[in-house]
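Quick one:
INPUT:
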């Protein structure tokens, strides 16, 4: 089986793990946690980084840090993994679902139109006309490492007092190329951003996530909440409800080693994308999904779009590839169609459904060989 996306653990992982174990600092306190935070901060050019146990917990802390509360609303794209929206519900807030653009990202135009037509501004907050609830935040998701076109909404959201919480779980290594955002890393544009180091991401710590921000107060609040809201560690004094959300030193040791190879991984991803692009676009009825030109995207996941003239529907193509030992994955069922989220408000969603019905992801691990890439494209051609 050619796997979809697996980790590449061929650097200093064992060396750092041995050192970590020898010091007996294997839990949430240890030098590698601090090193990992410092190195992520340097790589992403963010002032602060807070290591968390997962991308999901990072989002939860991020939303709490900007005071999303019971009865509030958060704008969420329907085309995303469900972990993007679950933390909204953890806080007893409600999502409002938006459509995606051609890059699977939040449709910025529809988002702005919704705010302009369906809300009003009162007492310093944007209020949903329909529900009379405050819209506290929007969560743009950089899907598959594709940067969301955020430049046009930064000032827009400031005027509306809508915080921007970037879900950059898949976007480590994605930088903007143009305009006011030039050379800035995905996740550092809004008020706060979140990364993931799950096993299938471009680098991994086995599990884990990271909050990145240029706002000192938000960073301090997230770190405070991630360590059980500890005010005094001698007498165990806690002035708030906190969480056990800190990354472990043993995971951070792996993350530090992985980050040392991030540039090699990004180059490999670009090479895979270029190879697939040349081969797959020549196959009638198929094309490789485009990348936005305004950013240098990390090409984390490779997505094929199945055109209407292709002889097989998505589900059949997935089965045929699996029979040939090629692992594939569908795009996520849009969140507004998920059982627990059907009841929530949605706004003119069409593209998300279209791309869900026509998109599959194909193998793209950073250790993928030329022979494996040829095998994948030849199987597609034969099908």
């Amino acid at each position: 089986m050619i796997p979809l996306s697996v980790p590449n653990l061929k650097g200093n992982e064992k060396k750092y793990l041995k050192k970590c174990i020898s010091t007996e600092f294997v839990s949430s306190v240890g030098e590698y946690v601090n090193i990992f935070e410092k190195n992520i901060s340097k790589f992403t050019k963010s002032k602060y980084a807070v290591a968390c146990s997962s991308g999901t917990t990072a989002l939860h802390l991020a939303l709490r840090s900007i005071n999303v509360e019971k009865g509030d609303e958060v704008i969420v794209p329907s085309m995303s993994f469900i972990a993007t929206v679950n933390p909204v519900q953890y806080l007893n807030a409600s999502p409002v679902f938006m459509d995606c653009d051609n890059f699977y990202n939040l449709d910025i135009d529809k988002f702005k139109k919704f705010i302009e037509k369906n809300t009003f501004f009162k007492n310093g907050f944007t209020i949903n006309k329909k529900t009379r609830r405050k819209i506290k935040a929007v969560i743009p998701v950089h899907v598959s490492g594709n940067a969301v076109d955020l430049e046009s909404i930064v000032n827009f959201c400031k005027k509306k007092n809508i915080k921007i919480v970037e879900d950059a779980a898949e976007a480590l290594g994605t930088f903007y190329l143009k305009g006011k955002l030039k050379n800035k890393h995905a996740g550092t544009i809004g008020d706060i951003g979140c990364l993931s180091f799950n096993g299938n991401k471009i680098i991994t710590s086995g599990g884990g996530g990271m909050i990145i921000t240029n706002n000192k107060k938000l960073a301090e609040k997230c770190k405070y909440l991630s360590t059980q809201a500890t005010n005094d560690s001698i007498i165990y004094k806690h002035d708030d409800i906190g969480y056990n959300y800190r990354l472990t030193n043993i995971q951070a040791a792996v993350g530090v080693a992985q980050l040392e190879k991030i540039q090699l991984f990004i180059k490999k991803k670009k090479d895979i994308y270029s190879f697939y692009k040349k081969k797959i676009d020549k196959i009638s009825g198929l094309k490789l999904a485009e990348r936005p030109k305004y950013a240098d995207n990390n090409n984390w996941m490779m997505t094929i779009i199945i055109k209407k003239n292709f002889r097989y529907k998505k589900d059949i193509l997935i089965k045929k590839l699996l029979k040939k030992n090629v692992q594939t994955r569908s795009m996520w069922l849009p969140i507004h169609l998920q059982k627990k989220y059907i009841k929530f408000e949605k706004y003119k969603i069409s593209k998300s459904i279209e791309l869900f019905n026509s998109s599959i992801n194909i193998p793209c691990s950073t250790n993928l060989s030329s022979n494996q890439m040829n095998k994948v494209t030849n199987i597609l051609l034969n099908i």
